[in-house]
Design goal:
By secondary structure, the protein is of the alpha/beta class. The chain contains 12 helices and 12 strands. The protein has a 7-stranded mixed beta sheet with strand order 8-9-10-7-6-11-12, with helices on both faces.
């Protein structure tokens, strides 16, 4: 049996090898060549992993989750990874490995190379029998996993559940951690350059995809008070981080539709800012709602199942019932390894789920 702190050491050693390996470099090159993600977004994600996944941070995370007496287990966890961001499923990989459970990963075809490059290095150690991954869920027919960890759209949950049952990929009494939040909101009551630059980063990093990306701005300011300066900062960001995206037909149509209705809006390259509306059906549309904290509270409550984080530039600002989802705007795209998607700590969930079995 391997103690979880030995697991932490194994993970960090594997990371050191991974960061300097040909496997990772080849994975990056293939990902960029196939235009799945930009090189700068991949590097940003890797830099975040390098700084947030350390032996100290894993030890702290493990202690907080109550892993003191935990050791290897025969529980199998099926992880269905999203692919909208580079390495978006990495936290789940680390949580399963640190807990000592068996990892079975369904790697997204939208991010098919980066996570496997790390898993292949982990598999070279004595934990290799505890790691398997595939790009097709069909390959897990008859797996009989004890739990499923899934991140994706709420619309796909029923289909996923039906398929894993049909394939007999899960046991009859399997547990599930389903996370479906799709965007984040910011309460923007400052308009200094530092705050606006952080806002630009929170909107544009990872092409505006992902649940931590800002899609809704609530502010006491009118958009016209800050939009020109924000646009300049977005252009600065794009100059240093050229996007893959261009203006989509869907966004172009929305711009024309809004114009016909006389709605206040502003477009920068492929990003459209629109006042009110709040359809939230397009990653390239940012909704600006003018109002105070009470409006932010109402919008958060009305989007409870879809909202991930609520960012602020004021430390003491809190929204009732969302205390665990509040975060500084400056850290929007750089969470710690122990952050809580949809309010759930995946390591704590794993331990609590099986601690009495």
């Amino acid at each position: 049996m391997m103690h979880w702190q030995q697991q932490a050491e194994l993970i960090t050693k594997a990371l050191d090898v991974w960061f300097s390996s040909d496997l990772l470099q080849q994975a990056i090159e293939r990902t960029v060549k196939e235009r799945l993600f930009t090189h700068h977004d991949i590097q940003y994600s890797l830099d975040q992993i390098r700084s947030s996944v350390t032996n100290n941070s894993l030890t702290k995370w493990g202690n907080e989750a109550g892993l003191d007496s935990a050791s290897m287990s025969d529980k199998t966890i099926l992880c269905l990874h999203a692919g909208n961001l580079p390495l978006v499923g990495f936290q789940d990989v680390i949580a399963v490995m640190l807990s000592g459970y068996k990892y079975a990963g369904k790697v997204s075809t939208k991010d098919p190379y980066l996570i496997p490059a790390f898993l292949d290095i982990l598999k070279e150690d004595e934990v290799q029998k505890r790691i398997q991954y595939n790009h097709k869920l069909d390959n897990y027919k008859g797996l009989q996993a004890d739990a499923v960890m899934f991140s994706g759209s709420g619309e796909s949950i029923k289909e996923v559940r039906n398929k894993i049952k049909r394939l007999n990929s899960v046991s009859p009494c399997y547990k599930s951690l389903i996370r479906t939040a799709g965007f984040s909101m910011v309460y923007m009551n400052h308009k200094d350059k530092k705050s606006l630059k952080a806002l630009a980063e929170a909107i544009l990093r990872y092409e505006g995809k992902g649940c931590r990306s800002v899609a809704m701005i609530v502010s006491p300011f009118k958009p016209t008070e800050v939009i020109e300066r924000l646009g300049e900062l977005m252009e600065e960001y794009w100059e240093n981080n050229p996007p893959l995206k261009t203006l989509s037909p869907k966004t172009k149509y929305r711009y024309a539709y809004n114009k016909a209705l006389g709605k206040d809006q502003q477009i920068f390259r492929h990003i459209l800012f629109q006042q009110d509306g709040l359809e939230l059906d397009n990653d390239d549309i940012i909704y600006w709602a003018q109002g105070d904290v009470d409006l932010a509270q109402k919008l958060a409550e009305s989007n409870l199942m879809r909202i991930q984080n609520i960012y602020t530039v004021t430390d003491n600002l809190k929204l009732l019932g969302f205390e665990d989802r509040m975060a500084p705007l400056a850290s929007a795209q750089s969470p710690p390894i122990s952050w809580k998607p949809d309010g759930f700590d995946p390591l704590d969930w794993l331990i609590q789920t099986f601690q009495n079995e």
